């Protein structure tokens, strides 16, 4: 892949101090997070809609907007997942022009985390690292384990010990060293920060975070291209750390800055589970202060980050774009999963149920009104969290291989048999 080098440096989001392109993630002066910076004039001079359309359909179409110095070497087929026109779900939610950005079919682990891991591990190769690791609520663990295996890294995955068994298995199968930690995600992450300070490993969401987080932008780039190079009016995005929301908004702004789309108003909206909604609560209070949730209590474990690293920036981005934030109860989350599946044939994990449920609340409150498309970001497949739904689903009736028994079954109120 021939691409111009446009990644310039890392820079503190608070004080603006420049840093070299190394495995570092916080400013030594004010502890602000570091973010990748690009030469947008160079991007403008070498990219056009036509040139992007001619490239293979993967997240690497947007290589110039990503923090690498050479060609990517991990996750070459990640991304460019479908943008589905969701007419039946739109009718149910009262949204006229609704789309689903469907990362449940992302490669290789059916989650948007494949995007961020592909960037982080490609950069880890450039930095000469041989061992990679992460703190995870599940989806990141799966993606790190799979992509590390394909790229020849040794990998360590640290997770809360009560994580869904299906997600644990989906990390173990790739040969990752999986370690359960007694405690919520924030305690896992704190331990990983200590480990990263002692071992020369690449923790994708710690010392490689400035590179890792940029991979989320590709979801935003794809949405705009798939809408015919037009910004959506509203985008509803699930929030754990808050990074995905801030990076999708950054992608929209970068496309405007480089002349690839016309500038127009867009709003990004955040969705959280009620049992762990520190970003939403800060938004509702009209505050920038994120009050940590010490013991998250929600079936949406992939979103259960009580002290979100990008919470402050997520609240700020929501407000700057005129968006809003909502939270959904466990019952509403399960209903959201079922509604998406029954109307559009898309099976999402619990985070997807959060997005649908919160979109329903936002629509009812009139926050998703106005002309133009509304996009819901569905970030991972439902096979990752089957346990959450199992108690709600009926046992199928069992009959002999007999047409008479089938006729008798159907003759009863058939609808009642499957409800």
From TrEMBL:
Tryptophan synthase beta chain-like PALP domain location: 76-379
Residues with N6-(pyridoxal phosphate)lysine modification: 113
GO biological process: isoleucine biosynthetic process; L-serine catabolic process; L-threonine catabolic process; threonine biosynthetic process
CDD domains in the record: Thr-synth_1 (cd01563)
Keyword Lyase on entry: yes
Domain of life from the UniProt record: Bacteria
Name used for this protein in its record: Threonine synthase
Species annotation: Candidatus Methylacidithermus pantelleriae
Stored Pfam families: PALP
């Amino acid at each position: 892949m021939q691409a111009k080098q446009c990644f310039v440096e890392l820079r503190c989001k608070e004080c603006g101090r420049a840093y070299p392109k190394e495995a570092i993630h916080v400013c030594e002066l004010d502890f602000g997070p570091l973010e990748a910076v690009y030469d947008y004039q160079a991007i403008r001079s070498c990219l056009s809609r036509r040139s992007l359309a001619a490239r293979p359909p993967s997240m690497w179409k947007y290589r110039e907007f990503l923090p690498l110095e050479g060609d990517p070497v991990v996750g070459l087929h990640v991304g460019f997942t479908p943008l589905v026109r969701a007419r039946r779900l739109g009718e149910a939610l009262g949204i006229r022009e609704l789309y689903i950005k469907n990362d449940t079919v992302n490669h290789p682990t059916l989650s948007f985390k494949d995007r961020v891991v592909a960037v982080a591990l490609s950069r880890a190769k450039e930095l000469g690292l041989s061992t990679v690791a992460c703190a995870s609520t599940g989806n990141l663990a799966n993606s790190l384990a799979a992509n590390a295996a394909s790229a020849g890294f040794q990998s360590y995955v640290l997770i809360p010990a009560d994580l869904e068994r299906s997600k644990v298995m989906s990390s173990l199968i790739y040969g990752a060293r999986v370690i359960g930690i007694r405690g919520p995600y924030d305690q896992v992450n704190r331990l990983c920060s200590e480990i990263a300070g002692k071992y020369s490993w690449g923790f994708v969401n710690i010392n490689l975070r400035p590179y890792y987080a940029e991979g989320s932008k590709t979801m935003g780039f794809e949405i705009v291209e798939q809408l015919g190079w037009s910004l959506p009016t509203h985008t509803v995005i699930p929030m754990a750390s808050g990074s995905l929301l801030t990076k999708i908004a950054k992608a929209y702004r970068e496309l405007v800055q480089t002349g690839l789309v016309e500038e127009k108003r867009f709003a990004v909206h955040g969705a959280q589970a009620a049992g762990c909604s520190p970003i939403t609560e800060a938004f509702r209070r009209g505050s920038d202060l994120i009050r940590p949730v010490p013991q998250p209590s929600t079936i949406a474990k992939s979103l259960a980050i009580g002290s979100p690293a990008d919470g402050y920036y997520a609240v700020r981005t929501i407000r700057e774009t005129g968006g809003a934030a909502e939270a959904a109860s466990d019952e509403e989350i399960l209903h959201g999963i079922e509604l998406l599946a029954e109307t559009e044939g898309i099976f999402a994990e619990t985070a997807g149920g959060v997005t649908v449920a919160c979109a329903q609340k936002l629509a009812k409150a009139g926050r998703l009104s106005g002309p133009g498309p509304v996009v819901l970001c569905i970030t991972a497949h439902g096979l990752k969290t089957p346990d959450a739904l199992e108690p709600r689903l009926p046992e199928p009736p069992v009959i002999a291989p007999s047409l008479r028994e089938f006729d008798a079954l159907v003759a009863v109120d058939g609808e009642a048999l499957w409800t």
